[in-house]
Design a protein that fits this description.
Pfam families: cNMP_binding (PF00027), HTH_Crp_2 (PF13545)
CATH topology of the largest domain: Jelly Rolls
Protein name: CRP-like cAMP-activated global transcriptional regulator
Order of helices and strands: HHEEEEHEHHHHHEEH
CATH class of the largest domain: Mainly Beta
Distance between the termini: 54 Å
Shape: elongated
GO cellular component, one term: cytosol
CATH superfamily of the largest domain: Jelly Rolls
InterPro entries: cNMP-bd_dom (IPR000595), cNMP-bd_dom_sf (IPR018490), Env_Response_Regulators (IPR050397), HTH_CRP (IPR012318), RmlC-like_jellyroll (IPR014710), WH-like_DNA-bd_sf (IPR036388), WH_DNA-bd_sf (IPR036390)
Radius of gyration: 20 Å
Organism: Ferriphaselus amnicola
């Protein structure tokens, strides 16, 4: 059961829950648990059954698709106020996970039991609208990802990715490779080329963007 302080934080992060009737709010609080997970924790993995629906209060989770040879492609991130469409799909379709969820920054989250999730979907329209709105947003993101992977060269995708980050970016070349579904050696080589062009300055686990317009022009070629 969730205590009052957690309930307040949950309603602040997920305002569509504020209109819950008293009986549904009671069901939610009685059928949920608070989890705190450190960075690196695998929240769910491929072919595992879904145990509940997460609502993040702090931290974030990366959802990753891995290949048999160990390469990874980041599908999306889940931040506070958001949730995981793969989880909702598994719960509604009674299927197993087809990707892995891994904590990137220490997470605090409320996990709704499967029965409570289904009760909210069927009985509370604002929650149902929230879930299907997430599907719409994530589908758009996934189409952009598919388009980038299929039609853009890796160097253009890397340039575009760097432009979405705050400079200086504190990340390893491996982390960037994971986001792009590539390998560290290739990303390192491309970053060195970007540095030679004067677009970035490389440091130890740090990348400073020195010519954002140049990077943007290159990403759009």
């Amino acid at each position: 059961m969730l205590d009052t302080a957690i309930q307040i934080r949950l309603l602040a992060a997920y305002p569509m829950l504020r209109g819950l009737p008293a009986n549904l709010l009671e069901s939610l609080c009685n059928g949920a648990q608070l989890l705190r997970l450190p960075a690196g924790t695998v929240v769910f993995d491929e072919d595992q059954p879904c145990q509940g629906f997460p609502l993040l209060l702090a931290g974030n989770v990366r959802v990753i698709k891995a290949s048999p040879n160990g390469r990874e492609l980041q599908l999306y991130r889940v931040d506070p106020g958001e949730s995981c469409i793969l989880t909702s799909s598994c719960l509604m379709g009674h299927t197993r996970y087809q990707a892995r969820g891994e904590v990137e920054k220490d997470v605090e989250m409320v996990v709704l039991s499967a029965p409570v999730f289904r009760q909210l979907i069927s009985a509370f329209e604002p929650f149902r609208d929230y879930i299907f709105g997430l599907f719409s947003d994530r589908l758009t993101d996934m189409m952009q990802l598919v388009s980038a992977v299929a039609f853009q060269k890796l160097d253009q995708r890397l340039a575009a990715l760097l432009l979405t980050k705050t400079s200086p970016l504190r990340a390893t070349h491996q982390q960037l490779a994971d986001e792009l579904g590539s390998v560290r050696e290739m990303v390192s080589r491309l970053l060195k080329q970007f540095a030679d062009q004067g677009w970035v300055k490389l440091g130890r686990e740090q990348i400073e963007i020195t010519d954002a317009p140049g990077l943007k022009r290159y990403s759009l070629l």
